[in-house]
Every structure is written in structure tokens, then in C-alpha cells.
Amino acid sequence: MTEMNNITISNLYQHPGERLLRWMSVKGEGSISDFKAAIENISNELGIEKWLEVKFFSYERLLNTYINLLHIERERTKWNIAKSSINILPGINNKAVLTGSRNEVLINNLLENSLKEEESYSIYLIESGLENVLKNGIDLSANNLRSLSEFYEIFTPHTVLFTDYDEVQDLKNVSNDLDISLNEISPLEYVSSLPTLDEYISMHNTSSIARFHQPEKFRNFINSSSFISYNQEINFDELDGYNKIEDCLYRYEIHGSQHQYYIYKDNKNYFITEEAIGFWKQISRLDKVYSFFIESDSLSGILIIPTAFKLPKIYLKTLGFCLAVTPRTLKPARSDNKTNPKMDIYLNVPTKVAKTLIQEKLNCKLEFISEFSEIQNYIEING
Question: With bands split at pLDDT 50, 70 and 90, how would you rate the model's confidence at 135?
Fold first, then answer.
């Protein structure tokens, strides 16, 4: 974490993630194709376009990063920039973050405002692991990024952190001076207002399945590889186009590797907008633990979720309100000769927020642990 006035504005503007965020802020909204083209253009300028051709590269992952940081919102094939906002963090004294739209004028005004003698707050940037490369002006193409993870890091914008302010009124003054919003809604208030997963599923369209489709039924979460497997459904009734297993996740191929996902519920097929909705519905049906929580004295708590099980975006926003930094990903160690799946680590999540999100809204189990090593007691590794 570096104080904002210690980083030159010119270097900040050259940061790939900041460049992408500024472009999105100016454009306001666009298609997923526009988003991809912007990443390609910046990558070509930096000479790092080869990472776009790596087998497991995902534009979707980068898009989800900007959603998780509360900079953009998405509706299927389109995205739109969120309004600039100062969000007060829960569970930490006198801390807030800047989210949403971010252009050159705002950054310059923010820096000038923070340098006024009468102001009682400081601004810091929470940086990626490659920040020293960018601060020192080293050409990224010469630096040779070592992994796809590092590519994702440099395309992640900074988190702008407000700290050391005396009272909320100081932030209200800042928001007024800069003409941006001040959001005092807590993560608990937000998550409490959300529908349950079943309520959310019921908002989706329903239809029968054409008899020429070959539906597949969810079979298993394979934790050692983090894959999710399906097998051909034998209970499909071709006459009425419905399956017969309540609350189960199904899919059928549209073309190539793309699938249409749906859930059979209340004698109807609910076609869902995100496969993540289906995965979490499956988790709620299973008598297994996939979500973990470590209570902490310093940063509220730590929520731990397998990387393969991305939260549906409507629920993911809850965690953005908690800290507005991207989750860290790691594989917790095991004492046997097997390997845990990758887990996403979300910091500063209050206990009640985690319980409301996982137990009440998603109807899944949440296991309280004291350290990461305990995860192996609950994650079953197949093979």
C-alpha cells in the first residue's frame, strides 16, 4: 500500500488496469466485444499480447474483476460503468474506498483535494504484486511476465483507500467537493435486501425442452481438479420436455462448448442466466461443506470459497462492499498426499454478512474454522 502522492500521476496513468478503467469510464457502456478489443489494444501496445493466446486465458475473469471491485455492472452481453462512489468499509475504523467510474479529472481533483492543509484524511493505493515494475517505469514486454496470474494482476486497477479521517462528515465534504456519491449502505443491509437463491431462480423464464436436445444432469464436483461433471440424463421425458428430479441442475449443448443451463423446480424448467446460480443450487442440495469462514480481530473475517464456484453476480456485489479488493487465490495445504482445490479468499467480511449470504440467501453450509489447514477435514478429494 502506497500513499497516493508518492506515485507519479504519469506512471499511474500507464498502469494497464487504470487505462482500461479510464476507457470504460469515458465510454460509459459497451458490449463484451468492446471490452475484449480494449484489452487487446492495450496488450498490443505493451507487447504482452501473447498471453491472450494462452490456453486458459479468460476475458470473463477480467470482466468479473471489475464487477467484483464495483466499477461496472453487467447484463449478459453488455456492461455499464457504475457511478463514482465513496464506500465506507465495515468493521474497520475510518476506512473507505473509491469505486465506480474513474477518469483523469477525478484522479487529479482527488489528489489536489487530499493535499489541502485543512483536510483530515489520507489516500492510499492498494497495489498489485507487480507494482514495482510499473512504478520504476520498466517496460512490461522486457520484464517478461512469468504467468497468466501476473497478466491478470497488471490489468487489475488500484483500490483507492481513504483513511485517517476523523468522522463521516469529512467524507461528505470530499464527496461534495468532487461531486461524487457517498455510500453509507452497509454490506449487511445490502445482502439482507437480496432475494434468496430460490426466489432468484423463480424470476427466470420457464419452458419445456425440445425433444432433439440431449440434456445432461449434474453428477459431481471433482474437487482435486476443480471441475464439475455431468452425465447424460436418463429421466428426461421427451413427450413433455421435462426432467423429473426436483431442484437439480441440467444443461444441454447450444454449440461448441457453450451450454444452456436450467433447473427443474416446481414442475418447471427454469432457464438461468448464470451457470453459477446452478452450481450454488447444487451445493445447497448436497450434504457437504464448500464454504469456510475464519473470524478475525483485525479485518472482520475471512470468507473462503472454491475458485470454481463463482458467486452469482447479484450476490458477489456483497463482498465488494466489504473491502473492494480482488480475492486472493491459494491452495490450502493438506497433510495427506492429495491437493486441495484452489480457494478464493475474501477479506474483511463481517461474520453476520457471511452467515446471511451463505446460509440464508444461498441456503448452503458455512463452516467456521480457525486456520486454513482445517479445510482438508471437509473437502473430499476424488482420485
Answer: very low
